Amino acid sequence: MLLMNNRSIVFAYTMREWLSGGASPSQGEGRGFESRLALIFTKLPDGLPESFFIKGKKNMDVFIWILDVVGTIAFSISGAMVGIRKRMDLFGVCVLGVVTATGGGMTRDIVLGINPPRMFTNSTDVLIAAVTAILTFIVIHYANKKKQTHIGFREMYSLVLFVMDTLGLAIFTVIGIEVALATRPDAGSFLLVFVGTVTGVGGGLLRDMMSESIPYIFQKHIYATACIVGAVICVIFYRKLNISLNMSMIVGAIAVLVIRALAAQLRWNLPTIHLDEEGKS
To answer: What is the pTM of this model?
Structure first.
């Protein structure tokens, strides 16, 4: 079913309000740059899918919703791929994908006193994560069935896992800060950074524990540290520099992406201690 003219106008108006800083009082004054971008949405063509307007999301900032969906899909793929690598069956892969995508948000909600956590009152993210995990299982199953297990395929598998994990990490870190601000507008900077970090790494931590792996955040490629830096940058931009929340979130997410990419490329890792065999307990 296609949208009528009035629906396109509503969408354009909503986006213009967000880009001009009017979507939420907590986002500060609009920026000229954002206002100019809003003009793009005054010429939207008819024919947007009806499913774009999801029930229950009417008053939700479109920008936040898009980030949430992208992050959910990215983390679900990473969780499913870990499950496949651990030779789990379809159900196990699906569960791991859902846990990876929603675990951080559930932990965040518990910290913020949101009871029950939002994943239990709005099943949209759970459904998106489950469908994504199942599709990931099917795609990799058929790719493996065609004997595409050569080194190039394995390298691509590892690259996709890294990219999806990093994308989910960056997005959920800043979404955690946004939810904390919406729930507790007077929250201190430490709480914002803590909640952002927990939201970013929580799902991956649960994923690794359930798959009997050493949690990724404790061993490789500046994982949680990237979250902390990105969260700090986001909070500084919003609280200290009075940049709009949406723009602060974009900058914070980019910081996480850049740090993770550099850490992987340059093999950055935090110091560890390698004990001799005699020194091990």
So the answer is: 0.73
